[in-house]
Amino acid sequence: RENSAHEKIDYQVLDIDSDVTEFLTCNGQFDRVYSFYCLQWLQDPGAALKNIASLLLPGGQCLLVFPATHQPATIWSRLAIMERWEKYSEILRKHIPKSHYMKDKEVQLAYMSTLLREAQLSPSIYVLSRLVTFDGWSEHDIIGMHMGVVPINALVTNEERHQLLEDITTLVREVHAPDCDKSLFRTYIIMATKPKS
Q: Which portions of this protein are annotated as coiled-coil regions (predicted)?
């Protein structure tokens, strides 16, 4: 809004995994819905996909891009099992999507296919590619990003924040190491259509 104001753009907040009835009443349905790197913050994107389908006119399309598995969730799951972060483990785990625990690519594809079918969305493009978000980033920038998105950052005390930075730095060096298997981190790229009838 502040940096990208435009007379033809109306900015509104919509919680995509909650009831969208009021939003639909005010705005109606859409020909297209685009979502880039948002659905990974939901533990189970099934409700969000159903809401996206309800936002679409019959024959409408959506383009969705979001990680199935990603490095931040790996770091959160590792933090959650550390004794010193035990009191925050539920918060950390709450932000890890179900697909993150599925290591097999075929299982991740089958899982998302089921969710799309349940939402009555028919994919015409359905790809699970290697996540390339962090390619070319410096270690300093990666650590800063992880500190910025870790769900407990605003909850920890000042004393804990120093330890959190140390732990995240250690985990970043493991998870983003040059010899780490980057193929484990994958992104869903989906273009799907709502049936016309």
A: none
